[in-house]
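Fill in residues.
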């Protein structure tokens, strides 16, 4: 037994250090665009060596935790490779003349300067904030009302829940084209004009489609919160003579405060990242006057679509990456503020 333990003490750090070295080397070679053909096998061997090194750690006290970590590692590794590393690299690329493949020089804040000089980008930020505020209010109010309906004694509750949630299962691109047909062909026979032909009405159309798609999903979360309220509390309120309105505002809403926080956070982040419906429904078109007296041809282009068009359509990856970094900062700050304010209100309620 002592011989095995001693051997493990020797082998464990060797496999751990060797595995980490192989993984880091493989990732660096891949990031630098090396032509070395065995980067993939090197990464896999490094991971196996790392796992084996963890398994051989001669500690009975922490062995179970190590086993848990081994099973959790693939998820953490995938998250790091697909989220953390691209984020760090993206921030770095925003300070270069990156072409989507390579960069030749550092340009400092030149990409950010170019970004803020673009009236279309400033307009996309403005309408994105307006879109987010309107949808945070409308989606949550409508979803909560639907949840109240679907937790009442109305017959056919299962049908209503399914019907309200069903639009969320349709992909955004498909949903956009379906509603584009409705607004441009069906409703035109009534209004005599396409709702997508003018910027104001087109933005209203995007809001309608987003609510129709997302309210059912948020409704299910509210239903979960409402069904967790103890029946004894509601029964006691009824016995005490509380009206339906008093029960709603004094009992139900305070008791699902954490659910409201989750729903507002999900609505906030989802609305900020709106892309597919925006692209399929209007593709950002619509004329609006900019701040310099001219006209922009992308009046309904929100922030995510503006970043996509900058990088892909205009082939300006470095500026698009700078916009994406700013987008991340804005979303992170707004989300933290929203969660902090919501948590404070939870305590007050």
């Amino acid at each position: 037994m002592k011989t095995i333990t001693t051997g493990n003490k020797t082998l464990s750090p060797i496999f751990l250090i060797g595995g980490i070295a192989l993984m880091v080397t493989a990732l660096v070679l891949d990031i630098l665009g090396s032509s070395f053909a065995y980067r993939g096998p090197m990464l896999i061997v490094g991971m196996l060596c790392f796992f084996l090194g963890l398994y051989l750690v001669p500690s009975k006290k922490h062995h179970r935790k190590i086993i848990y970590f081994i099973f959790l590692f693939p998820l953490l590794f995938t998250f790091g490779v697909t989220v953390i590393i691209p984020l760090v690299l993206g921030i770095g690329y925003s300070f270069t003349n990156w072409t989507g493949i390579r960069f030749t020089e550092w340009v400092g804040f030149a990409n950010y300067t170019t970004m803020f000089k673009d009236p279309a980008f400033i307009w996309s930020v403005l309408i994105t904030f307006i879109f987010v505020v309107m949808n945070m209010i409308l989606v949550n109010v409508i979803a909560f009302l639907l949840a109240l309906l679907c937790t009442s004694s109305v017959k056919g509750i299962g049908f209503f829940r399914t019907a309200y949630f069903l639009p969320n299962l349709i992909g955004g691109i498909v949903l956009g084209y379906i509603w584009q047909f409705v607004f441009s062909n069906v409703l035109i026979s009534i209004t005599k004009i396409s709702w997508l032909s003018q910027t104001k009405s087109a933005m209203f159309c995007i809001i309608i489609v987003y609510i129709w798609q997302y309210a059912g999903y948020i409704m299910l979360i509210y239903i979960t919160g409402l069904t967790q309220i103890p029946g004894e509390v509601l029964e006691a309120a009824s016995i005490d003579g509380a009206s339906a309105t008093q029960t709603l505002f004094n009992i139900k809403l305070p008791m699902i405060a954490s659910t409201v926080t989750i729903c507002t956070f999900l609505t906030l982040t989802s609305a900020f990242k709106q892309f597919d419906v925006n692209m399929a429904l209007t593709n950002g078109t619509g004329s609006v006057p900019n701040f310099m007296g001219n006209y922009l041809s992308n009046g309904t282009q929100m922030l995510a679509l503006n970043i996509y068009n900058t990088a892909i359509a205009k082939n300006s990856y470095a500026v698009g990456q700078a916009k994406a970094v700013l987008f991340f900062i804005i979303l992170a700050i707004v989300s933290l503020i929203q969660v902090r304010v919501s948590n404070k209100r939870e305590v007050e309620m």
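The mean pLDDT is 83.
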